Amino acid sequence: MKRIVVLAGGFGGARFLRGLRAVAPESKITVVANTGDDITLFGLRICPDLDTLMYTLGGVINEKTGWGRDDETFNSKAELAGFGVGPSWFGLGDRDLATHLIRTEMLNAGYSLTDVTSALVKRWELGLELLPMCDERVETHVRISDEDGDRFIHFQEWWIRLGAKVAAEQFVALNIEQSRPAKGVLEAIAGADLIILAPSNPVVSTGIILQVPGILTALKNADAPIVGVSPIINGAPVRGMADKCLTAIGVETNAHAVGAHYGARSAGGLLDGWLVDTTDLPMEINGIEVRALNLLMIDPVTTQAIAQEALNLGRALSNQRGGS
Amino acid sequence: MKRIVVLAGGFGGARFLRGLRAVAPESKITVVANTGDDITLFGLRICPDLDTLMYTLGGVINEKTGWGRDDETFNSKAELAGFGVGPSWFGLGDRDLATHLIRTEMLNAGYSLTDVTSALVKRWELGLELLPMCDERVETHVRISDEDGDRFIHFQEWWIRLGAKVAAEQFVALNIEQSRPAKGVLEAIAGADLIILAPSNPVVSTGIILQVPGILTALKNADAPIVGVSPIINGAPVRGMADKCLTAIGVETNAHAVGAHYGARSAGGLLDGWLVDTTDLPMEINGIEVRALNLLMIDPVTTQAIAQEALNLGRALSNQRGGS
Fold it and tell me: What are the DSSP calls for A266-294, one per residue?
């Protein structure tokens, strides 16, 4: 498993990757990150998933909240509110602000998001390559109906301000038809020995990455086996509100339904292997090799065991396919 | 003295205005502020003099340093340096950042600096009207010669990074020929009962304001007497490095030379009255009424006494001219 590609969102993907990096120190890991969560606030371009991945893998994440910087202060945010300038629901930390300032200035100067991300991560030895899914500005919007009527709001507003409490009727990744996989993404997928779908939100994280024209086809055509790690354990998301997202696309919130949603590669879907929690056994999905272990990433040891099992499953599938 | 116009830079102007506001509570005070110090850093538009005036008069200035916010932190600045992104010599505080974020976003949205300033100061009851000298981007540059050759650098770099230690050969306010007095400036000058030049740097604060096309003529044509408060006491600037600036334009660093540099209005200059420190007596400048008192603004009482004397001198000059 020399070359591994991982499709990832923020929190779950970042934790999983920390484990994978530890158990596969010799592998070249390329992360393709969701950027549909991105938002411009106060004139700053903010990429929540890229930032969570960078901070987590850089060892400077706030371990308690799972987002933002450690040892953070929120004085700038307090002052914005003091001026009466919103929104106030976004957790804009003072340390975090530096990332957004640099990103915004570089983007305004004409650099691509791929270049910007590469420049930002240089500060830390991530031990892997972090790529945005695309360079184009793609923003996921959520269709809701409430007292203000039937409307679309930005995913972040639905997720953070509304706490996903208002039912999502539809997710639209604006501008995604015009996007292209970022430089290096298709090459990494084509050259991979193993492809992993991290335990990220199947709808608004992995699901958005898969909508970037060219990525799904590249995955289906890849030589490498594709192993998914279920983000749903015992019928519920471990964290976040993936259940609300799955409901919107008509998928039940359980590991079997999500696995079936991705589908067996042999039947035109994506997955060769599917890693689920032992509480979700027994499980059988035609054409997908299912394996189970404790999927709760509660500490480094558990997380590394999960990553190791993804590697093991990938290796087994590779051998079945006659690969290396 | 119903309507008073004050030309001001940052620190000295802000302190003086705090005194003036206290002794002239019934007057409408309009401040015309220097914006030649303005600079764009990290993609943010920063207006040091406007900010110092706003923070000082809003009661949230760092009283110890005389610039920036009270109770300030510098975590964002530390992170920018952590990413290796400079310059590091500018004191960008986390609270202060909110001001720059709002200003930059509003300017990018098409608002004028006058509108932005008006929006920002709404948060505090300044008790006076704060206007930038112009809406156009004007930036003072300094010509220096050092090991890197003969060149121009931004005023802030010379002032802060170099501590004005490299001799200034010339000051050029870029783009000032294309600027116009901000909305309200000419009207305020024409309608004033008293015009005061605050104890600000005669070269890079007041001197820049006077270069905005139309302002000098408006002052010379104004009905109101013009009283200057000397920023030079006993042959030295109280604070800052006005001496380095005066040398560059061939003016000696003493209150008499600066008064003569502004010139008597009756002889084509600006001043009707000139307030100096008692240590600088005796002093006589043809056509200018000189008065002396302790000019060191060491506390509110002293500062208010200075502002009161400026009012008294203005009233006396007004009576001489047959005004109200």
Answer: GGTSSBSEEEEEGGG-S--BTTBEEEEE-
> Is the Cβ–Cβ distance between A66 and A76 less than 8 Å?
no
CB contact under 8 A, A95 and B76: yes
Residue B281, Cβ neighbours under 10 Å: how many? 13
- ipTM of the modeled complex: 0.94
Phi and psi at A32, nearest 5°, equal: -105, 110
Instruction: Compute the residue count for chain B.
Output: 324
Q: Closest approach of chain B CAs to the CA of A122, in angstroms? A: 8
Q: Are A239 and A231 in contact (CB under 8 A)?
A: no
State the amino acid at position B257 in one-letter form.
Answer: A
Question: Mean pLDDT of successive 10-residue segments in chain B (324 residues)?
Answer: 96 97 98 98 98 98 96 98 96 97 98 98 96 98 94 96 95 98 98 98 98 98 98 92 95 98 97 98 97 96 98 97 62
Which phi and psi (to 5°) does residue B8 adopt? -145, 150
- Cα separation, A28 vs A204, whole angstroms: 26
Q: Report domain extents, chain B.
A: 3-135+178-320, 139-177
Q: Compute, in degrees rounded to 10, the torsion defined by CA atoms A142, A147, A150, A155.
A: -10
Strands B28-33 and A149-154: unpaired
Q: Which residues of A touch B (CB under 8 A)?
A: 42-44, 69, 72-73, 75-80, 82-85, 93-95, 97-99, 101-102, 104-105, 108, 120, 123
pLDDT in tens, A133-167: 999 999 999 999 999 899 999 999 999 999 999 99
* CATH 3.40.630.10 is right for the domain spanning B3-135+178-320: no
Nearest CA in chain B to A74: B94
**3-class secondary structure per residue, B241-267:** CHHHHHHHCCCCCCHHHHHHHHCEHHH
* A197: amino acid identity, one letter: L
